[in-house]
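Researcher: I'm comparing several assemblies side by side, and this is the next one on my list. It has 923 residues spread over two chains. Same procedure as the others: predict the full complex and return the structure.
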Amino acid sequence: MTRPNLATIPALVLTAALTLLTWLGGAAYLAYERGIQESLQLKAEVHSQQVAWQAVSNAHRIAMQAYFDTIVSRPAVQQCLVEAQSSDPRRQVAARLRLYRELAPVYDQLVQRNVRQLHFHTPDSRSFLRFHAPHHSGDSLTASRPSVVQTNKTLKPVFGFETGRVVIGFRNVFPIVTEGRHLGSVELSQPFEAIRKGLHELEPENEYLLVLKGKVLLPKLFEEQKKLYAPSLLSDEWLVEDPRHELPDAAAPLTGTAQQVYAGLAGEQGFGRLLAAEQAGAVAVRQGGRIYQVGLLPLQDTDGTTSAALIVFSQAPQLQELYYSYRINLVIFTLLVLFGGTLLYLFLNSLQTVLKQEQQLGLITANIADGIYVMDSRGVITFVNRRTVELLGYGQEELVGVAAHQLFHRHRGEGQTPLADCPIYRVISTRGRYEGEELFAHKDGSLLQVQVASQPVIQGERIIGSVTVFRDVTEQKQLEEQLRISAVTDPLTGAYNRRFLQENLLKELYRAERSGASFSLIMFDLDHFKQINDRFGHSVGDQVLRHLTELVQGRIRASDLFARWGGEEFLLLLPETGLDAATAVAEALLENLRNTPISGVGTVTASLGVCSRQPGDTVDQLLVRVDRLLYQAKQDGRNRVISEQQR
Amino acid sequence: MTTRSRFKLMVCISWLLLYCGSASGQDAGRILTFVPLPLEQPEATVAAARPLAAYLGDQLKQPVQVRYLPDYQSIIRLFGEGKIDIVHLGPLPYLTLRQTVETAEPLAAVNEAGGKASYSCALVTALDGPASLRQLQGPLILTQPLSTCGYLTAALLLEQQGKDIKRYNVSYAGNHDKVALTVIRGTYQAGTMKTALARKYANLGLRVLAETKPFPGFLLVANRATLSPELISRIRDLLLNLPPDQKPRLLLGQYGFSPALEQEYLRLQRYRSFFR
């Protein structure tokens, strides 16, 4: 598996991907934080609603307890209840009638105080007298009213929310025991509307809706009561009482916005989960650009069965502010991410450019025919290219970290110089540029002639080293030398050619004129050379010419200049040499020639003319004179030297 | 026919069509108001009327709301003002309404438990009240002045015993339930109310001293001022042809409806002498 190369991925794509990932991460974090805050706020709201419910319930219970104490303490009431224990139906009717008459005025007052239910039960949990529905009595409450059964069983009061056959509300069921005799129980309850009003007084900004669980409620209700209930907007399982608010004392309907929030709750998944789990909680709902909290307080009957739920609607300015802050933070974060993304894009773009340049530079330095090495400010090598390794014979590891000057720089005279005098190193201190030819030592000890170009590397105002490019010019120099020699020598004999001698003759003439020194010329020509060619062939003739050249070059000084003048004619320039000395040289050369046989040919002779420079001579005058002397030697019988003295 | 006369005819036809269209469309989408008879306590009255209102609303594709009004005077006044579309009334209030508001049109009579559109009223007393009508001293508590089971019933039953109601102190409770409870409390020696409702209070010792002959049944009455003839006809048809499976779902109307026979109600006119 190949790793992606940073330089090959477009900066825009990389930036977009990183920016998107960063934004997603940040946005998720902000959303998470908002969720935490929202959850805390909603939990606080639920807690507040539970406390309010508890407070109203307690106040209600205390009031009902007081009413109970007042009512049951009446002797007439107790007497009626004693008579109600009779098994004679007529006596029971009479007792019920008297009880009704005794307490009807009290009930009228209780109704004024929002007490809806005053209900007496027999010890076996049958209805004895409902003041709120007096025509209904004698029915069993065992199935519908667990609180009544529990009270008559334990003879202890039971308090709590409970649905019933007529009224739904907060129940307060008290046992009636007189002089140790259990006469039944009585219930004093306020309808839910009374509780709602109590809650509304505590939290005026809240609105409340009671929903009832159909499968718990409907089996309990009297048939005529069932018609007052209809499915809620939440689901068919949950009912609401008097949905059209047709009853004269109907609770005020929800305000428009709360009604809209209520209408939208069926599609609110969070609320649906709470309701399905019958769990207290709250959700935030957006309606008309505002945030609302919808709290759910499940209400259990006294037997623990959830039979109803209180839904609390309230505006949520804290959540509104939280959401606003979240949006602002998200916008700021988005802008920061975009800004960071832009910077990242610019950086990556620049980085990719640098990487591309590095790649290109790497390719160039690896494939260039010149050696390149970089030195730090101390002259220590920090980088070498492949060609440097090839040219110098050292491994890369042998070069990097070593002072170049000590290792392979050689300068004039092929020797070492102090580092400060090294022209390549000095560019670091002089901030200048150096170009020139130098000698570098190969690892095997041989020397390379190199063309060097070196310049400092400047970072800001500081020189941090130098980069040096060098080229091996050894072969080039050798070639140039060969060309130079070819240009001034005769290809057959290796002696200088006529043009070279003429140039040097002129220089020597000028020099002699300036210094007054003397120089001489010897011109000689092989005798009967045509016959040699004719007799032995041109190759032998050439061999003779080369023999003569070797012989002369073996006898003359380094400062002397020997040239082939043309055919078998040669000219020898003897600087700083007078006529006598030159004549002696000519004699010696002739003697040598005579005594040196040539293989296959035998000995050969030559005729030589010798002259010296005279003040006022020109090149042509000198050449004419020496040529005449040669001619005279030929005329005099060859195999001899004729100098100007002899003439 | 000239061109001009043809044009006039077309304009007339267009106006006629427009008028018919608006007349038939005056009910479309509007919430119809149904006021039940305040026989019992408000909760029971509304609960009894609600299923019938829902049934009519479903069938008419038009919502029907139940509005509780506590007395007949208010009902007759609001009916005349066109604020009530359908009202549930006893026979005597119907006669009063008919004389006051010309747009009252009977839809159907409500059948009682026996399946007939008739009912009786009773003079009731408490367990410890007078044993017979002859022992009745008063005072009397009645439903409402215009109620059939109110002043009319008391006058009729007392007349049968040779007594003149004008010799008794009478008061009005407002509805039949309140009459029953007031008598049970003993505040009044007797009261008048619908017999069927009086039976519900036997558990509190309420007794029937005397009972009238059957009156023609309670009526549902439509308001022609607010409902189109087509809609009135449609409602009447729905009531008289109530599917059997619908009846158990109703309280008001659970025993069905019968055609309202105008002459039976008009016969009650003779009792109006009691009110002079």
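Model: For your comparison table: The interface with chain A takes residues 42-44, 46-48, 50-51, 65-68, 70, 126-128, 177, 180-181, 184-186, 200-205, 251 of chain B (CB under 8 Å).
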